[in-house]
Specification:
alpha+beta; 2 domains; globular
């Protein structure tokens, strides 16, 4: 949650305010005989650092959590319980109840966080958004104005495209057009690359686009390897988003084929942790019309 909200707020400067984690990173990577793939600073940040970031950027999180005063009190308790467990101290009889209540308190906030990530809207008219307009020729079924201010996808799907591209935008719950700066903070571009007649060699595509991964929020793909979605912070600027999208379009054209090897989605997500989502990750599919409980409390 912290990573995605700060990506949406600051783009490539999302690490701002995160205390140095280089020592933990270097100590982990020094053990070459038992290495893992994590490279993200958040993977090496301590819990207290994340809580400080939430506190300092409360406007990005207040819609998910209890009021700030209560949140700080509850996370102080949870941190103490965590320390007791981590250091093999005796637990308090009420510790389990406190953890369960904490999960109840944040359950629907976590649902809102995930579902808002998949609440995508098109830019209409398409000429109003430079990124959408730039890639309009790759949309296999563009939006049409069927009557004044009424839009629909009409016509026939253009199946001559080797790689199609649908551009949408999503807005973080804390985005407020009336108060947010004009730097697009809180807006994400959702780019879905489509292989209409073939399939993507997803591992090859990931390797080919490794250079631009530092600018992406997440990458995910459907279980049939016919669609790959990348999410890019709008704060990078429309020119940068277009550059990133064009790079993926180029390499996606080389990564399509009629026959590709089956993909183990969980393994692929583990090989590219922190931003590649498996097909059963709620961040990749959970929508606002899908009510659920995360913690079953």
């Amino acid at each position: 949650m912290v990573y995605i909200e700060l990506r949406a707020k600051r783009g490539d400067d999302w690490r701002q305010g995160l205390k140095t984690v280089s020592e933990a990173f270097e100590a982990d990577k020094a053990l070459t005989h038992m290495g893992t793939s994590e490279q993200n600073d958040f993977s090496y940040a301590q819990l207290w650092q994340l809580l400080v970031l939430i506190d300092n950027n409360w406007q990005c999180f207040e819609r998910y959590f209890p009021p700030k005063r209560l949140w700080k009190a509850k996370t102080h308790e949870i941190s103490q319980i965590r320390n007791r467990i981590a250091h093999f101290r005796t637990s308090h009889p009420d510790d389990l109840h406190r953890v369960e209540q904490f999960l109840k308190d944040i359950d629907q906030g976590f649902w809102k966080f995930c579902t808002s990530y998949n609440e995508k809207v098109p830019a209409l008219p398409q000429s109003s958004d430079p990124v959408t307009e730039h890639f309009l020729h790759l949309d296999p079924l563009p939006w049409g104005e069927i009557e004044p201010k009424s839009w629909a996808r009409v016509g026939q799907v253009n199946r001559s495209l080797v790689v199609g591209l649908k551009v949408n935008k999503s807005y973080r719950p804390w985005f407020d057009a009336s108060t947010t700066d004009a730097d697009n903070s809180g807006i994400l571009y959702d780019l879905s690359f489509l292989s209409l007649e073939r399939k993507f060699d997803v591992p090859r595509l990931l390797e080919s686009t490794r250079r631009i991964h530092q600018h992406l929020v997440t990458v995910d793909f459907d279980r049939h390897s016919k669609q790959v979605r990348i999410v890019v912070p709008a704060v990078l600027g429309s020119e940068k988003v277009i550059e990133i999208g064009s790079e993926v379009v180029k390499w996606a054209g080389y990564a399509v084929n009629r026959e590709v090897l089956p993909v183990d989605h969980k393994k692929l997500a583990n090989d590219w942790p922190e931003y590649v989502l498996s097909d059963d990750d709620p961040m990749s599919y959970l929508a606002p019309d899908m009510p659920c409980s995360f913690f079953n409390i």
